[in-house]
## 1
Amino acid sequence: MEAKLKALYGVRHAFGCSSGTAAVHIALGALAIEPGREVITSAITDMGSLTGVLYQLLIPRFADIEAFVEMGRRHGIPVIEDCAQAHHTMWKGRLVGTFAAVLTDRNDIEERIRLFIDTCCFRDGRKRNPYFLAPNYQMTEMQGAVANA
Ligand SMILES: Cc1ncc(COP(=O)(O)O)c(C=O)c1O
């Protein structure tokens, strides 16, 4: 499924996870944003957009998102697209979103995404060292099978 998503969206990295709520939380956790910083989000959304913000001790602020996406891109502020419910949707000629997955082109946070999904546990033979708090947001086999079908 992850290989299919990479090809479909043309991104370097794709990670399945357990839910849309988890996907937003993982993206925030992988960016390792300091507690107390502000996250600008839409007022019209699902609670899943906010849960990760609050768990990471960040402060949600509500605003018109389109203006902030542009500003974020110009000033190097990370932009997380919460595309739950928008699988395979086009916006301004671009494909957005997927379900329960985190997509990125950034090599610098790829490992932290992987660790945030999986209890900060190395699976490549390195000694266990859970050096930050990370939940278990792995996609189940059943979810993966359905997504792949
Ligand atoms: C925009 C948005 N973000 C996050 C979520 C949460 O997704 P999940 O229910 O898979 O945790 C939803 C669910 O409806 C959503 O619409």
Note: The longest strand covers residues 13-16.
## 2
Amino acid sequence: MIKCTRCNTEKEFNVAFDLSRFNGKLYLYCTKCKSNTEHEILGVYDPLTNRFIDKRELANLKFKSIEMD
Ligand SMILES: [Zn+2]
């Protein structure tokens, strides 16, 4: 899930990449604002477990992956 920081519209965002690299923010086109706006990353759905992972947990996962490297 991501949220437009300008109009606060929440939308689903399917990702096949590591969102944590964006520091919780990314610029995307918002259909409501009709422009590219900053979006806050609220979390993602893990397709492997069908589970919602919020941004705090994402940060922990990132931390773990760093540890394993
Ligand atoms: Zn917007």
Note: Residues 3 and 10 are 4 Å apart (CA to CA).
